[in-house]
Amino acid sequence: MDRKAWTVVIACVAALGLWQWAYVQYYAPTPEQLAEQRRVAEQAQAAAATPTPASETPATPAVPAVTSAAPAPAAALPSVPRETQTVTTGLANFNFVSDAGGIATVELLDHLGENGANVSLNIPEALPIGALSEQAGTALGGFAATSPGAPNEAVFVLDQPDGLQIRKTYAVSETDQGKGNYTVSLTLDFTNAGANPVQRTGYFLSTGGAAPVHSTDMTIYTGFDWSRDGKTTFTDVNWFNESSIPLTGIELRAAQNFYEQKTDNIGWAASKNQYFVNILAVTEGDRGTSVWARRLDLLHAGDAEKKVLGIEGALGLPGFRLEPGQTKSWTFQIYSGPKDLGRLSKLGQGEQEVMHFGIFKWVSEILLYSMNALHSLLGNFAAAIIALTIIIKALLWPLQNKATDSMRRMAALSPKMTELREKYKDDPTKMNQELMKLYKDYGVNPFSGCFPMLIQIPIFFGFYSMLGTAIELRNSSFLWVKDLSQPDTVGHILGFPINILPLLMAATMLWQMQLTPKTGDAVQRRMFMFMPLIFILFAYNFASALSLYWTTQNIISVIQLYATRNKPLPVLEKKAVTQKKALEAGKGKKRRSGP
After folding, report:
1. What is the pTM of this model?
2. Residue 232 lies in a domain
3. pLDDT tens for each residue of 334-359
4. Does 313 lie in the same domain as 434?
5. Could you tell me if residue 593 is inside a domain?
6. Do 393 and 308 belong to one domain?
7. Helices 522-539 & 3-27, crossing angle to 10 degrees?
8. 214 lies in the same domain as 141
9. Rounded distance, CA 512 to CA 562, Å?
């Protein structure tokens, strides 16, 4: 490699080290937090050694197992016997607890977590899904389980002193029962069984909580989403941090304990992590009037020094007044399962927006559907990604060839460009004018070599958004890669992870740069030199499937360049000369065909 290539390699390594340092700094807790976490972990271990009565057996913890670093100030539930009940859909077990009348956990039967157990949604530190409260963050307890009307139902009733009866009926439709789904309906009835009118200012209905599936998951994926009139608002756990102007220390906003928004016509709210989500959607009744969320500081049970950030939220319901004998009802659809675009799209209220594909949403969706279609044929997601990359490159092949020819024309023009730069080195304005005139005279577009790269950018970011949240790649392996949805770390050097595919990606980009015809355009050369640096920053700690895609497309581009590298440089003529020759050829042809 020449000196410029080595400069790029060194810059990539330096930037990678800086990125990893920032990554570790971002996640690492302070010494004070570590001390508090160790203290809480020791308390949790001591508590775990104490036998728990069978009637109060806690639900199976979420994955990863976490303990609260700062216990949430939730109101204590009334001292009533806790009963548990499970309703299954074939793909998930919804585990109910009676005291809060909600879903303590949702066990996904076909998804494995970090410790090899089934993924369990909702977390012990959060309220059960469907828990009701008059004040956000607390639970209205005292519900008692009653006999359901069908085997696929769970029913809970609470009678309040003023005559208001609250009844919750959770049900799996008979068409879904045993056939595989992640949805349960909740019918919420408020009935005035007393002799006097009753009035309530409103309630909060819990969406449950979410925590990262892997302790190394990026925090931007754990958050709370809600939708109003088809427009979705995204809030991740970093929103609760204080905000300041970088490098100045000027604080723009203090750290926040709660997130709350009051508005009308809220259709659904959701707590989510990178690949799974709990969604609470209004299907019948008045729509929500507010949303609420808070961040939960958790500990990874396997490593007390790892800080894990979780979140829980709630949907606010409007107040009402009931005369004796009147009933106020709502019906909700609860989805607790993977971020599966196909399933989410069928829920009917835009719930697929929790995928958060961004500005290249349409690209991400096309790529996802295409990848799944190829997987159904090939049976392997890595093979599907490689095949999809080949198809994309085949479609772009003519454009790439045209761009390569244009760059070869630029290379042929390079001596003349060097002469102009030397001649007008003291007059940059004149030099640029002459360069533009030179391009025009010889019919060369100095930026045409960038067009294929510009087209690849939406595809790259479409893959980036899609692979960051789509459930399909979880636990899919390829060669040494154990999980295509995670970095392909094979080891560590001084705590620094060694991820092979991103390094191969950068190497193949440098290889491609070495084979690309050298042009005289300095802007284009500088842009190409920084591309490996930019791409490795995006991909190093990301899903290894992204690096697999980009490495494959780099290799195909290299093959394409090898196929054209031995062609001689084109002989350039000024457009005026070329047009004159064409005109003379046309006149000669006309004379030969004349009388």
Report:
1. 0.74
2. yes
3. 999 999 998 999 998 999 999 988 88
4. no
5. no
6. no
7. 30
8. yes
9. 10
